[in-house]
Amino acid sequence: MSGPVFGDIRRWQPALVREVRDRVLADRERIGRAMTGLLAGRPPAAAWSGPAARAAFARATEALAVLGETAHRLAATAQALGRLADGMQAGLELVRHAERRAAEGGGRVDDLGRLVLPRPVEFVDPVRAAHQARQEALLREEVLRDVQQAERLVRQADDEAAARLTAAVREPAQAPPSASTELRVPAPPSVPDNGFISPTSVFANASWWRGLTPQEKGCAIRDHPLWVGPRDGVPAWARHQANLELLARAERDVAARLAAARRSPLRWVPEPWEDELEQAERQAEALRAVRDVVSRQDGAPRQLLAIGAADGLVTAVVAVGDVDRAEHVATFVGGFTTTVRQDLRPLDATLAGMRHEAKAMSGHGADVAVVAWLGYPAPQKSGLVQRRRSVASDFVARDRADELAAFLTGLDAARDTQLHTTLWAHSYGSALAGNALLLPGSVDDVVLFGSPGVPVRRLDETGLKPGGLNVLEAPDDLVPLAVPVFAGVSPLSVPGVRRLATLHVNGMPADLRSSHGHSEYTTPGTLSRHNLVAVAAGRSDLVIPATEYEAWFRAVVLGTGPAVPSPLPP
Question: With a threshold of 0.85, does the pTM exceed it?
Answer without folding.
Answer: yes
